[in-house]
Design goal:
The two termini are 26 Å apart. The protein has a two-stranded parallel ribbon with strand order 1-2. It is built from 4 helices and 2 strands, in the order ααβααβ. With 91 residues, it is mostly helical. It is globular, with a radius of gyration of 14 Å. Helix 1 packs across helix 2. 48% of the residues lie in helices and 11% in strands. The chain has one domain. 3% of the residues are buried.
């Protein structure tokens, strides 16, 4: 049995349920434990977008107009602060 996959599916359901009750859900933890993977898995089940703050354009928009960046009605928004260029939409 793949315990990691079972745990991920469980946490996806927890985050999805929390998103029905709260506007913001923070996923935090140590490096390389699957925070981005979990966020992207939840995002795949919803309409929305992924904003990576390590992208210079996104970071610049966030610094200049954070309200404008987040005010777009695009469903769920995942904001990633990471040192990698990993994306939910990579093949």
């Amino acid at each position: 049995m793949n315990h990691t996959r079972h745990l991920t599916r469980h946490l996806e359901a927890v985050v999805a349920r929390l998103l029905t009750e709260f506007r913001v859900v923070v996923i935090t933890g140590s490096r390389k434990v699957g925070k981005s993977t979990l966020a992207c898995a939840v995002l795949r089940e919803r309409s929305g977008r992924y904003l990576a703050l390590d992208d210079p354009d996104t970071r610049g928009r966030a610094l200049v107009d954070p309200v404008g960046l987040l005010s777009a009605e695009e469903g769920t928004t995942v904001i990633a602060r990471s040192s990698s260029r990993w994306s939910c939409f990579a093949p």
